Amino acid sequence: MTRNAREARGRRRWSRRFAYLGVVACLLTVLLWAANVPFYSGWGRAHFGWRMEHGRIKVEWSDEPRLGRESFYIAGNSEGLRWWPKWRLYSWTDGYVNVPLWMILIGEIGMTSWLFVRSRRDPSGPDCPKCEYPLRGLENPATCPECGAALVKKSTKRKPPKDA
Predict the structure, then answer these.
(1) Which residues, in sequence order, are CB contacts of 127 under 8 Å at separation 6+?
(2) pLDDT recorded at residue 146
(3) Which of 45, 77, 96, 133 is least crowded, fewest Cβ atoms below 10 Å from its Cβ?
(4) Could you tell me the residue ranges of all domains in the chain?
(5) d(Cα 58, Cα 155) in Å, to the nearest integer?
(6) Is the predicted pLDDT of residue 139 greater than 80, yes or no?
(7) How far does CA 74 lie from the centroid of its chain?
């Protein structure tokens, strides 16, 4: 097996692994959204905090410490879902960003789909099934020039039915 074939195979393998991680991330986002409908939760310290509410994730930061923040909390959610992003930047060191979970999910689905497509295609062309020698540029080879294995070419023509 040549170095380029090994590298392409390794890239396809890692693309597939990351794609499976993307599927898990999508499922976790859907579970977060389902849990976020009846409840809201969050965590905060003096200068930084996050909160999940109304189907969105809110991240806030501040230069000055804010008093009264709880370390972690879960409470009932009385309002409905909010579908659009919202942000306020009071200064570079003070503000917040709300991102709806559906936007995060769309990004995860897009990246996961791209990784699955990338792991399935073979940009280098056909390889020998035995030694994975690249057969690109060879004119209809019957055997592999590297290992001598017989190559089976799939026919795209339909065979006529046999007369009985």
Answers:
(1) 5, 133, 134, 135
(2) 81
(3) 45
(4) 3-120, 129-164
(5) 57
(6) no
(7) 29
For residue 98, report the phi and psi dihedrals to the nearest 5 degrees: -110, 125
5-19, 23-37, 99-113: least confident range: 5-19
74-89: pLDDT as tens digits: 777 666 677 888 888 8
Q: Is the pLDDT of residue 120 over 80?
A: no
Q: Where are the beta strands (DSSP E) in 22-114?
A: 39-44, 48-53, 56-61, 72-76, 86-91, 94-100
State the distance between the two ends of the chain, measured CA to CA, in whole angstroms. 47
- Cα–Cα dist 53/38, whole Å: 9
CA 63 – CA 45 distance, rounded (Å) = 12
pLDDT at 11: 72
pTM of the model: 0.59
Integer angstrom CA distances of residue 72 from 15, 25, 42, 94, 163? 36, 23, 6, 21, 78
Which tokens belong to 133? 């020698």
Please answer whether residues 37 and 80 qualify as being in contact, where contact means their C-beta atoms are separated by less than 8 angstroms.
no
Rg over CA atoms, the chain? 27
Amino acid at 142: A
